[in-house]
Amino acid sequence: MARTRTFITGLDLSLWDGGEQQLVLAVDYEFHPGSKGSWDEPPAGDTAEVTAVRILRDGEHLSVPEWLSGWIEAAAGLLDSLVTHAAEQNDSDKSDAAERRAEADRDDRMMEGR
């Protein structure tokens, strides 16, 4: 099941006057967890698909021209970074869910003990 996530990263620009500027980018993507395979389907690794790229500036989300979005999506290592980001987020989500369940169990036990 695909899940949409957002990855924040930067893009360094060299300006014509010799200066530099960093753009903060929000890359929205869908993460597709891999599968172990079955008798009729081969195993598949985790994948990510970019759905949108936006520039973050002063709390605003600015659209990115199509040519720049395509260039960013094709950047070496971006998809690997997205898969790593999603895996870390999934681990964090599982940990948070386990913590919420443990807290709910403690609350239930306390209520029963009254």
Note down, in words, how this protein is organized.
The longest helix is centred in the last third of the chain and has 35 residues. The model has no long low-confidence stretch (mean pLDDT 83). The protein has a four-stranded antiparallel sheet with strand order 1-2-3-4. The chain has one domain. It is of the alpha+beta class. The protein has two helices and four strands, in the order ββββαα. A hairpin with a 5-residue loop joins strand 1 and strand 2.
Relative helix content: 25-40%
Q: Strand portion, in percent?
A: 35-45%
Number of helices: 2
DSSP summary, beta strand count: 4
Secondary-structure element string: EEEEHH
Taken from the alpha-carbon principal axes, the silhouette is flat
Provide the gyration radius in Å: 20 Å
What is the count of structural domains?
A: 1
- Average pLDDT over all residues: 83
**Major pleated sheet:** 4 strands, antiparallel
Q: Report the span from N to C terminus.
A: 42 Å
Backbone structural class: alpha+beta
Strand order of the largest sheet: 1-2-3-4
**Contiguous runs where pLDDT drops below 50 for at least 5 residues:** none
Q: What is the topology?
A:
Elements: E1 3-14, E2 20-32, E3 47-57, E4 60-63, H1 66-73, H2 78-112
Antiparallel strand pairs: 1-2, 2-3, 3-4
